[in-house]
Design a protein that fits this description.
By secondary structure, the chain is of the alpha/beta class. The chain has 2 domains: about 220 residues, 3-Layer(aba) Sandwich (Rossmann fold); about 70 residues, 2-Layer Sandwich (Alpha-Beta Plaits). Helices cover about 45% and strands about 25% of the residues. The protein contains 11 helices and 14 strands. A 6-stranded mixed beta sheet has the order 6-7-8-3-9-10, with helices on both faces. Helix 6 links the parallel strand 7 and strand 8. Helix 3 crosses helix 4 and helix 8 crosses helix 11. The C terminus is likely disordered.
């Protein structure tokens, strides 16, 4: 299990990670999402012990990453976006080198590396120089090094970037095969990939966790009312009259232009949790209005991502604007106070000059 509790990381005045907390359990693949600059890479670097947080704790399988770094790091396999490969080594030499670095017992190395090569389909390439491999196979070698020692946690940062469609399918299948024995964390900008591979999704923005859940749960949470889009043969008035009589339809929108089939394009909002498509079709058929097409419009993970991170950015902007307003207000007050002080000093100086002139006149 991984427990990230209240971690904070700042670079000067910029807070990259802001009191971030979450818990991850074995047997799941977790998607780690966020826009550029959201704090994903910083969080992963803190979790792997590469950089230290300013506050908070990270516990890997019961080991604190700061207090017990060696024990905690034994539990982690990490594949960064650019795999840390030595181009002048063969695949086999490199994996034995990594096994030595990870202190895998010598008697276990041969069997373990053979198993990992089989898992990553590198068996035919063990004697090949890494520099002579394609990008897809270099990515496999990077994944193989992350698996050396069979750690509890596998962290993958953009594992399919630059791969062709066939390689992507193979890497996805490989990631799925790791689910049962590891906690897998997958960071990717390819939302369709996250939706297809991951069991649970964490979305962060401005260093904070904005939402977490399965892709279906997030789509339902951000989905709102169901929208149904149809193409119907008939007049606008006929269609609107029939649909107005269907329970749970709250909005009816009819587009001005007809579609390629000559149908009237209509979109309705279903406020019910029930599927009302059959009710709509029966109602329209009852008055002789043929339905050419009908589909529900469901929010995708991409829509959820944009809405979740968009709201977060608005909040951050409002906070920034409030702070700016407070600063400007403070500056205005300071300027006003300064002007009042200068005015008082001027008045006092003038009064003293007048008094001095009057005293001289009296003496004369």
């Amino acid at each position: 299990m991984i427990e990230v509790k209240d971690i904070v990381k700042s670079y000067g005045n910029h807070k990259a990670v802001d009191h971030l907390s979450f818990t991850l359990e074995k047997g799941k693949i977790y998607g780690f999402l966020g826009p550029n600059g959201a704090g994903k890479s910083t969080t992963m670097n803190i979790m792997t012990g590469y950089i230290a947080a300013n506050g908070g704790t990270v516990t890997i399988d019961g080991h604190d990453i700061v207090k017990e770094p060696e024990e905690a790091k034994k539990c982690i396999g990490y594949l960064p976006e650019l795999p840390p490969l030595y181009m002048d080594m063969t695949v086999s030499e490199y994996l034995y080198f990594v096994a030595d670095l990870k202190k895998v017992p010598k008697k276990e190395r041969r069997d373990q590396i053979a198993k990992i090569m089989s898992l990553t389909m590198l068996g035919e390439y063990e004697g090949r120089m890494i520099r002579n491999l394609s990008k897809g196979y270099r990515q496999r070698v990077g994944l193989a090094q992350a698996l050396i020692g069979f750690p509890e946690v596998i962290i993958l940062d953009e594992p399919t970037v630059g791969l062709d469609p066939q390689q992507i399918i193979e890497i996805r299948n490989l990631i799925r095969s790791l689910r049962d024995d590891h906690i897998v964390i997958l960071s990717s900008h390819i939302l369709s990939e996250v939706n297809e591979v991951c069991d649970d999704v964490l979305i962060i923005s401005h260093g904070k966790l904005v939402c977490q859940g399965t892709p279906d749960e997030l789509e339902e949470k951000f989905g709102g009312a169901e929208h149904i889009r149809m193409s119907i043969l008939g007049t606008d008035a006929q269609i609107k009259g029939v649909l107005a009589g269907v329970p749970s339809i709250s909005e009816i929108t009819i587009e001005e232009e007809k579609d390629a089939q000559g149908g009237v394009v209509v979109e309705v909002v279903n406020n019910s949790s029930e599927d009302i498509r059959a009710d709509i079709a029966r109602a329209l058929a009852g008055v002789g209005l043929p339905v050419l097409s009908m589909e529900t419009q469901k929010k995708t993970l991409e829509d959820v991502f944009l809405e979740a991170t968009g709201n977060s950015e608005v909040e951050a902007k409002n906070h920034s604007d409030d702070s700016k307003a407070d600063n400007e207000s403070g500056e205005e007050k300071s300027e006003a106070t300064t002007e009042e002080t200068i005015s008082e000093e001027k008045s006092k100086a003038v009064a003293e000059d007048v008094e001095e002139i009057e005293n001289k006149e009296d003496e004369e």
